[in-house]
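Dear support,

Our group has been running a series of protein-ligand predictions, and this particular one with NAP is the one our PI (initials K.S.) wants archived with full inputs and outputs. We had some confusion internally about which version of the output was final, so please treat the block below as the authoritative record. The input we submitted was:
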Amino acid sequence: MDIEIGILGATGFTGCELVGLLLRHPRAKIAWLSSESQPGTAYGKVYPQFLGRLSPAVEKMRSFEDVKNTRPDVVFSCLPHGASAECAAPFLANGKTIVIDLSADFRLKDAKAYAEAYAHTHPLPHLLPESRYGLSEVHAAAIKGAKLIANPGCYPTSALLPLFPLIRDGIVSPDGIIIDSKSGVSGAGKKATETTHYVNANESVMAYGVGDKHRHRWEIIEQLSLAAGRKLDLLFTAHLIPMERGILSTIYCDFAAGMDGAAADACLKKQYADSDFVRLREDFPRTGDVKHTNFCHIKSYQPAGSRKLIIVSVIDNMVKGASGQALQNMNIALGLPAALGLA
Ligand SMILES: NC(=O)c1ccc[n+]([C@@H]2O[C@H](COP(=O)([O-])OP(=O)(O)OC[C@H]3O[C@@H](n4cnc5c(N)ncnc54)[C@H](OP(=O)(O)O)[C@@H]3O)[C@@H](O)[C@H]2O)c1
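Confirmed final output from the archive:
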């Protein structure tokens, strides 16, 4: 049977990526695409790569007002944080629809941390306990059957896939972790800004959200505190680099007492031996290796004579870091093979 799907904010980058993925999914049927700025406009006019590929009933985008009382099987929200929670609410209330939110609105369990990270109070804090954090490979059991899934942030996905099992299993110390990440410009969404404008971003690299400032730091801390069984702190710095898509994270951490590089490799192998989308590499991965895919490639390395572990992890921010993982989470939530339509 078809899975009926609505996409809120379909005109954005992650919405566009999701439409492309859904058209290749054997069970997915797009029921509607929504846009607030261009309702009534044909999707193929906004994204010509979809001309003639959507059914006539779906081709023209609808407003939120027009779709909010519909009851598709799944709604993906590709809206900015703040707006996303409010637009998800009617679907959560209808008793049928699974909501998969690509924004940050349901990622943090702690509404105080949300307010600190996003500089506004959470619009619907009573819904936070209901959400399941959608790091597919780590939380699959909790995602199965869930009605509200918070799709992880792009940077957190690249950092948590290696770090979560290493901390949970006591291989690396929860203290003193440093995450240094680089992202392509699509991570900032469709609207060009002073920073993401081609003229300013091309042939230039910049650090932003340095150390304790980036919003995704709160998310990484909350998840790794869960893995450690106690509150931890860490430093995270993001960089904007002149490429279209991709994230590379370099992570520095200290081994726990008695642990070493071989223990780290064994832990990651145990976690990901049968994984559909995580690959452990002998050499250091490049973002180009995972471009346009739902894969995460990881290499862990203990430098000679050092008590530190260095991890390099790469993903495509738009796929594994957003729409691909969202689709993987839909599959898991519905009890379908996680890689259906994605491999
Ligand atoms: N880009 C990434 O790599 C990435 C990765 C992980 C997560 N995310 C998250 O996923 C969400 C979507 O990201 P994106 O990159 O697709 O963003 P985007 O390209 O900026 O698209 C967001 C869409 O939401 C709609 N929108 C914008 N402001 C709105 C508002 N105030 N109220 C209602 N709708 C609004 C717009 O569509 P209309 O004007 O047509 O309605 C816009 O096209 C964000 O929360 C983002 O943080 C993005």
